[in-house]
Structures are given as C-alpha cells and as structure tokens.
Amino acid sequence: MKFGIDRLLSEPDLRKPLEGKRVALVAHPASVTRDLEHSLDALVAAGVNVTSAFGPQHGLKGDKQDNMVETADETDPTYGIPVFSLYGEVRRPTGQMMSSADVFLFDLQDLGCRIYTFVTTLLYLLEEAAKTGKSVWVLDRPNPAGRPVEGTMLMPGQESFVGAGPMPMRHGLTMGEMGHWFIKHFGLDVEYRVIAMEGWEPDGTGHGWPENRVWINPSPNAANVNMARAYAGTVMIEGATLSEGRGTTRPLEVLFGAPDIDAKAVHAEMRRIAPSWLKGCALRECWFEPTFHKHAGQLCNGLMIHAEGPFYDHTHFRPWRLQALAFKAIRALYPDYEIWRDFPYEYELDRLAIDVINGGPALREWVDDTSASPVDLDRMAANDETEWRDQIERVLLY
C-alpha cells in the first residue's frame, strides 16, 4: 500500500499543481516515506519548492517530552528555510507564517483520538487558509485505531486545543477525512485536497495500521500500536492523580498506576461492575517506578493493557469505557481517593483537566455518582456514537 506522501512522490501528475508554487510542510518525526526518508528531505529531492516547514506539539523533531512544553521557531540548518512552531508562542498560524507559502502540505500521523492535538492543528490551518486564500493538502495516513467510534460528544462551549469540535473521543477518521468534516461542519471556504492512500484497508488484518509498515512515534510517548489503540481511554489519566506510565518505557499503556492502590482488587471490582467492558484485550497486573512525572521514584501498582497479539479483538475492544470502568472501580474501593487532578491542562485554567479532556463533565460525574451504573454511561455514549457515525458517513474515503 502507499501513504499519501508515497503517492505524491511517485506520481508526477499529483505533483504537477505544485509547480511554480511555494510549498510549506507540516510534519513531525513520523512524517516519513515507505523507505523511512523524512518527508521534508524527500520533497526537496523531488524538486518541490519547499519554502517553510511547521512543527506541531512536540516539535518538528519530536523532542519535547511532556505536554505544555513549547517549541521555539528556528531555521532549518540544511535548507535554510524557516521552521515555525505551532506549539510555542502561538497555536494558530499567524499571517506572517501563512505568507511563507501558497500550498500547505499537512503530513502528520494521527492516533485517531479527538484529544491528540494534531486534529486541532489541522482545523486551525484550514481556518487560516480560508482567511488568506491558501491551499491545504492532506497527505493522508492511516488511523491506527481503525474505524471504531467511541465516547461521548464534546459539548458546546467545551472547545479547547484538545477539543476542536463536537466529536467523540475515538473518531474513526483519517486526517484527510477529518479535513472534509471540518470544512463541512464549520462552513469553511478553502481550497482543499486529499492525496489519498492506496490500498489502505481499515478493517483488514492490521485493524487500521498496515502490518508491512514500520511504526514511528508521532509524539514521544506514542511508542507502538498498542498505545495507539488504548489511547482514547488512557489519555484520560492525564486528568487524574494516577500515573499514566509517563517516566517509564510504556507510557499510556496502563489503566492506572499508584503507590497506594491495590491493582488486583481494582481488576476484580471492574469484573464485578461491568465484565463486558473488559472484552477485546488482556489486563495484567504490573509494577513500575516512574523516573519522572507523577509518583516519580515511587513503586506503583497498576494494570497493563494488552490490546495486541492473540488478546486483541478489534470489534469488542472499547478503551474509553475500559478507562471509565477503572476510575469507577477505584472510586468504589476508595471512596475518598482524590482521583481528579486540579491543574492547568493545555492552558485551560477554569475547568478540571478531566472535563477538558473528555469534552465536558459527564464522565467525571458518572464516576463520582455512586448510584450511576454502567447502563447509564453506555446509553449516553451510544446515542452520541450513533449520531457521529451518521455524520461522518459522507466523508469516508476508504
């Protein structure tokens, strides 16, 4: 199969509209060709007139480890072009940045989750391109989590840099498809093109990620496909006092970790509360000591998610519900435990981080309400999931 960048490089007719145009590239470390050449190098070698580059959160080089660690603008040492940061002094491209090119190639590998900030970066680029008369091309890449949709819809008024619009946590789209949805939903008048993949089968054996392609971290803590599958659930731990495994070699692949919680007991309580929500993966009790971040230097007990190998069932794995269930079990066993972390999250100062992450307070309120059952959350989410599937049917390209 071919990703969008591979097709653009191998098919001269696709590149022809770029002749005589100044071209910008939005990229990160996973922006590579089939042969692992970075897209910037490959485009320049192909004769494309690249006049600027843009780096999203974590930077063009992907060197910024944590959230809310900004990247400065710089000059590329090889090509002498400006490299603008979209996670530094600004999140939205400025007029000066937009004036650096005529066509903007967006080549970011996504994880298929609303909170992954590359989604919002695409929206901001489309909005600014619409204002300035620029063109945006998405060089499409797979959604490694595949087509499944899960979670409650982001509520009106809850928009943020980790919530670009009313969509569920696990959106099921590629970035090319997401661009079409943004244009339709927000009524944008922008010249937009998708260089579609060739041969991508979202329901094939890789369940989203093609088995013959190498995985490269699109951000420092996105280490493998297991993480990408689990992320729509485990990202919510960023809004909790529990550890998501940052400071270890397997971040965001655990349901939780803490020095004062019995993981085995939590696992048993999860099976008691909603056994069907544990389907599609294996959970394994584990111990880890983060070298930095939450609970640094303390021995934590937790549950590792294995949505991989013989344990993975693409149809039944529902990471958002699984993570909600872990929170619910902890609340049941430790009624007074301070689960929710109160700190500025992605520059949102007036809302709890878990509410920013989940696009509203519904999940937190369900966890904290001792009378609320799995049926209540399932009903709420199912309605939103059905609505979203209906919305996106017209923008699917594969």
Automatic annotation (TrEMBL):
InterPro entries: NamZ (IPR008302), NamZ_C (IPR048503), NamZ_N (IPR048502)
Span of domain Peptidoglycan beta-N-acetylmuramidase NamZ C-terminal: 230-398
Peptidoglycan beta-N-acetylmuramidase NamZ N-terminal domain boundaries: 23-225
PANTHER family for the chain: HYPOTHETICAL 460 KDA PROTEIN IN FEUA-SIGW INTERGENIC REGION [PRECURSOR], PEPTIDOGLYCAN BETA-N-ACETYLMURAMIDASE NAMZ
Identification of the protein by name: DUF1343 domain-containing protein
Upper taxonomic lineage: Bacteria, Pseudomonadati, Pseudomonadota, Alphaproteobacteria, Sphingomonadales
